[in-house]
Write a structure and sequence with these properties.
Number of helices: 8
CATH architecture of the largest domain: 3-Layer(bba) Sandwich
CATH superfamily of the largest domain: FAD/NAD(P)-binding domain
Helix content: 10-25%
Number of domains: 2
Order of helices and strands: EHEHHEEHEEEHEEEEEEEHHEEEH
Structural class: alpha/beta
CATH topology of the largest domain: FAD/NAD(P)-binding domain
Radius of gyration: 22 Å
Shape: elongated
Distance between the termini: 57 Å
CATH class of the largest domain: Alpha Beta
Length: 398
């Protein structure tokens, strides 16, 4: 191959640099495929860095006494991700960080909350262990208080630092990740033209194109996604009682509150709040959502001085394959039209299964492992890593 070629042959062109695209790229390269990923913004700038980093094992999908399809699909993901983090699997995540080995589930004194915990503990007994409320070693600091009267369970569900996951993947596969100016759309003849200031346009001729761009997949009329919004909340301040990674159970199949903990660029502790608060909060404006968050936290953890804690909120659209009635998909989704594939992982934790499924489609499309190199792209700009929501300069804190 020389620089005079009018178009660069690409076996698999991946459009979108979130967890789905980067994981797929890593898996295909490990198998010897000539895959190239193109991103039009920053890596993880869509949904990935707005996730809470939870590698679900199915507990939150079994709160009503039945093992749902979602619970069974996702059950093996904690072990799978731990193997990757240890360098024992096809996708090498060594260097990425775990924020916590386990998360917790806590039930309040409300009968419905305790009943949901009981059902889940019976179904998930190999992955869920009750913690003595006064065990200072096992109990999260936020819940280790004399006034706490609920029940606590430890879950076999790790929490990852999503930014470090993306960084590990991008660093290992930097030579096959490029930045494009604006969305990448096919030309009439099925080729794609890369554009970037200071670079001559470069035409790509892919055999198969895989779209993993989340909401950006909406550019394909035959694969319009459904969008399910969330109104996420962030809290920071010296009054926060240490890191917390936990679901608080309510009366529905969605946890009343899901909390993960992170540190911002100034090393301040951040509580990141999702669950029912985020789902119900889509009907509230920013001020109303902050009021609701303060009220919920005062109800659940009244021993904390929430008046001294700052809050910020933002909305995010979860892009998924369209489902009847707009319900949450039970698993990842893959749609195919000829040599175009569109994919959504649905959950961060399902990225490995999504990549496996896409790989199974390739032999039927005439593709076999064949490493390719593209020397004309060696000087092409590479996309930077996006910032976490709590580190965005435009984020307004109360």
């Amino acid at each position: 191959m020389t620089g005079s070629d009018p178009a660069l042959p690409v076996d698999i062109l991946i459009v979108g640099g979130g967890i789905a695209g980067l994981w797929l790229l890593a898996r295909l390269r490990a198998r010897g495929y000539g895959a190239l990923l193109v991103e039009s913004d920053r890596l993880g700038s869509g949904q990935t860095l707005c996730s809470q980093g939870i590698i679900h094992g199915g507990t939150k999908y079994s709160l009503h006494g039945q093992l749902s399809d979602s619970a069974q699909t996702i059950a093996g993901m904690p072990t799978r991700w731990r193997d990757c983090l240890a360098g024992r699997a096809d996708v090498d995540l060594r260097g990425a960080r775990l924020l916590a080995e386990h998360q917790y589930l806590w039930a309040t004194q409300a009968p419905t909350s305790r009943l949901a915990a009981f059902f889940a503990s019976k179904l998930m007994r190999s992955r869920m262990e009750k913690v003595a409320n006064r065990d200072a070693v096992e109990t999260p600091p936020a819940l280790h208080h004399p006034a706490f009267q609920g029940a606590i369970y430890r879950l076999d569900e790790p929490i990852v630092d999503a930014a470090s996951i993306l960084a590990a993947l991008a660093t290992r596969h930097r030579d096959t990740i490029v930045l494009n100016q604006g969305p990448l759309v096919p030309n009439a003849e099925g080729t794609f033209t890369l554009r970037q200031p200071g670079q001559p346009p470069q035409t790509l001729r892919p055999t198969v194109t895989v779209y993993t761009a989340g909401a950006g997949n909406a550019a394909l009329p035959w694969a319009t996604p459904q969008l399910r919004p969330l109104h996420m909340v962030m809290a920071r301040g010296a009054a926060l009682p240490g890191p917390l990674y936990a679901h608080c159970l309510g009366v529905s199949e969605v946890p009343r509150l899901t909390v993960t903990s992170h540190y911002d660029a100034s090393d301040r502790l951040i509580w990141y709040l999702g669950g029912g608060l985020a789902e119900e909060g889509v009907s509230r404006d920013r001020a109303g959502q902050i009021v609701a968050a303060r009220h919920e936290l005062r109800q659940l953890l009244p021993w904390v001085d929430w008046n001294t804690v700052e809050f910020a909120t933002f909305t995010i659209q979860r892009a998924e394959a369209h489902q009847a009635g707009g319900r949450r998909p039970a698993s990842y989704s893959v749609l195919r039209d000829g040599r175009m594939i569109v994919a959504w992982p649905t959950k961060l934790a399902l990225a490995p299964l999504l990549a496996e499924r896409i790989e199974t489609l390739l032999p039927d499309l005439g593709l076999q492992p064949r490493p390719l190199q593209w020397p004309t792209l060696a000087a092409w700009p590479r996309p930077a890593l996006a910032a976490y929501p709590w580190d965005r300069e435009d984020m307004a804190w109360s």
